[in-house]
Design brief:
Layout: H1 20-28, H2 37-51, E1 69-77, E2 80-89, E3 96-97
Antiparallel strand pairs: 1-2, 2-3
Length: 112
């Protein structure tokens, strides 16, 4: 079974990661109209969702959304402002080259 995580642009190839608890809560909100059939269907759906395999995933902040990401890093050299680097992370000291789609455990969401 493919346990890949979706990157958004590959939705046709991979599944989205969703919260099992939120899914079960949402399924439980479906109204039963008294005939018992909906209740039975909901019960089956809840059981099936509870048995689905889980992925080991955590939310991340992509570099492009991180306050430490610097798309065009400017420095003044001999009094002249110049772009000295492109797509760097300023968290790691002098800045290390990164990718806008990357992420790390130090990511902090940039405030708009």
């Amino acid at each position: 079974m493919d346990k890949s995580i979706s990157c958004g642009h590959e939705k046709d190839k991979k599944d989205d990661v969703i919260s099992r608890a939120e899914t079960l809560k949402t399924i439980g909100k479906v109204p039963d109209y008294g005939d018992g059939m909906v209740f039975e269907a909901i019960s089956h759906a809840q059981r099936d969702v509870a048995l689905l395999p889980a992925v080991d995933a955590v939310p991340v902040i992509r570099c492009r959304d991180c306050k430490h990401f610097d798309l065009d890093h400017w420095e003044t050299i001999n009094g002249i402002p110049l772009i000295v680097a492109h797509e760097i992370c300023t968290f790691w000291g002098g800045g290390c080259k990164t990718d806008a789609g990357g992420y790390c455990f130090k990511g902090e969401r940039r405030e708009e």
